[in-house]
Design brief:
Length: 195
C-alpha cells in the first residue's frame, strides 16, 4: 500500500474531503494536491533513509498520539496539527526551504492559491504521519531500530534499501513510502526532489 492509498483510507475514505473542507478547498483540487504531495513526502522519506537519516525518520513516526491526526481531519488541520506536520515536513525535506519549494510547485501545478497550500500541506503531512504511526506502532519501530549496537543503523539502512537480507523487516515502511505501488520509491517525486 502506498502513502497515497493510505491517505485515501483516512476516516473510511472521507478524511481527505474533510481536510479539504477545513480550508475551503474544492474536493477535486484537494485530491489533485494530494496526488502530487503524497509521492513527494514518500520519496523525501526514502531519500532521508538513503542518506543515513533513518533514525530521524523512524523517530518522527514514534508517538502513539499521532495516530489521531489520521483519524480526525479537524485535529490535522488545527494549529497544533499543522505545527506537528510542519516539523515532520522540515525533517523530511531538509528544512523549511524544501517545504516552501514543494508548496510553490504544487500550488502552480494544481492552480490553487499558495496561501491555501501553505496550510493544507502541513495538515496533510500531519495526517500522513498519523497514518504511518498507526501502521507502525512504537513497538514495531523499536523492533526495527533494535537495541543491539551490533545491528546498528547502518545494517538497518542497507536492509531498508534492499541491499541486505539480514536485519529487521522494513517492507511495510518501504511499501508505504512507494507512492504509486510500482515498487520504486525514488521515481515518485516531483521537481528538485525527483532524483
Amino acid at each position: 500500500m502506498s502513502l497515497l492509498s493510505l491517505l485515501q483510507q483516512s476516516q473510511n475514505g472521507h478524511g481527505l474531503g474533510a481536510l479539504a473542507d477545513q480550508f475551503g478547498l474544492d474536493a477535486d483540487k484537494a485530491s489533485d494536491l494530494t496526488a502530487l504531495l503524497a509521492p513527494a513526502l514518500g520519496s523525501a522519506a526514502k531519500q532521508q533513509a538513503a542518506s543515513g537519516n533513518l533514525n530521524t525518520l523512524l523517530g518522527a513516526l514514534k508517538g502513539e498520539d499521532q495516530a489521531a491526526l489520521f483519524d480526525d481531519a479537524t485535529a490535522a488541520a488545527s494549529q497544533a496539527g499543522q505545527m506537528q506536520g510542519k516539523a515532520f515536513l522540515d525533517n523530511l525535506l531538509g528544512g523549511s526551504e524544501g517545504a516552501d519549494e514543494l508548496t510553490n510547485q504544487a500550488a502552480a501545478r494544481v492552480g490553487v492559491d499558495t496561501s491555501i497550500v501553505q496550510q493544507f500541506l502541513p495538515a496533510l503531512a500531519a495526517m500522513a504521519q498519523g497514518g504511518l504511526q498507526k501502521n507502525l506502532p512504537d513497538a514495531s519501530i523499536d523492533t526495527m531500530t533494535g537495541s543491539s549496537p551490533a545491528g546498528g543503523l547502518v545494517s538497518l539502512a542497507t536492509k531498508f534499501l534492499g541491499a541486505d537480507s539480514k536485519g529487521p523487516d522494513l517492507s511495510m515502511l518501504t511499501n508505504l513510502l512507494d507512492a504509486d505501488d510500482d515498487g520504486s520509491v525514488l521515481d515518485d517525486i516531483m521537481g528538485k526532489f525527483l532524483k
